[in-house]
Amino acid sequence: MTESHQVQSRVRSVMEDPSAQAIARVYAEAFLNAAGGKEGGETLDEMASFVNDVLQKFPQFETLLTTNVVNRDKKVSMIGRVLGTQGSELFRNFLCTLARHERLDLLPLILNESQIQYETLCGKQRVSVTSSFPLSAEAQSRIQSELGKSLPFEPVLETSVDPSLLGGLKIQVGDTVYDTTIKSRMKQLRKSLRKRSHHEIQCGRDRFSYPEGN
Predict the structure, then answer these.
(1) Which of 119, 150, 171 lies at the terminal end of a domain, its last residue?
(2) List of residues 6+ apart from 62 with CB closer than 8 A
(3) Rounded to two decimals, what is the model's pTM?
(4) What is the pLDDT of residues 57-90, one digit of tens each?
(5) What three-state secondary structure class fits 173?
(6) Same domain, yes or no, for 164 and 211?
(7) DSSP assignment string, 38-95
(8) CA torsion sign, 25 to 101 to 108 to 169?
(9) With contact defined as beta carbons under 8 Å apart, do 76 and 92 qualify?
(10) Neighbouring residues of 198: CB distance < 8 A, sequence distance ≥ 6
(11) Quick one: a GO cellular component term (predicted)?
(12) φ, ψ for residue 120, nearest 5 deg
């Protein structure tokens, strides 16, 4: 068996674990508390840089950090060599803690949870906006501005594209969905036409059942 087959990453299985999100949320809260809450923006940027500029660009290094073949002490040593004196002591210690608890594979999830919690601390909240085509920066700015006028927090847009919507927007704030898409309008129209057709058929049956003069 080759070395590439022997080195197996736990990332896939962990990401599919329904409890992974909850575990990541706990680590994210602890990380932000240690970083000073709203004052932890720079440390959060440091985590984002490590995930985006190191792990994503060097997948072999990510595999070494997340595999169960490399022991914990070696992972801690690798983190020290890679970060050196560049990273903050807080972030280095946090990564080492994850390594000792075999949780480095949760780092992308922890980053996402940390960003969400940090945004909440700063009076922001993510809003999902789905359109039938990619929105320009100008359109996103306009939507964000309009939403900000009616929401009790500063919206942070998460955009996605679904061509089947045909046109319009589907906006989700928490558990509430505002659907102004053409697809939704057509669905409502079909429902209205079916209801009207059913009503007309029923009226016709009633006329035949009770003819005039009887």
Answers:
(1) 119
(2) 9, 11, 55, 56
(3) 0.69
(4) 999 999 999 998 999 999 999 999 888 877 799 9
(5) strand
(6) yes
(7) GG-HHHHHHHHHIIIIIITT-HHHHHHHHBSSS-HHHHHHHHHHHHTTTS-HHHHHHH
(8) negative
(9) no
(10) none
(11) membrane
(12) -65, -45
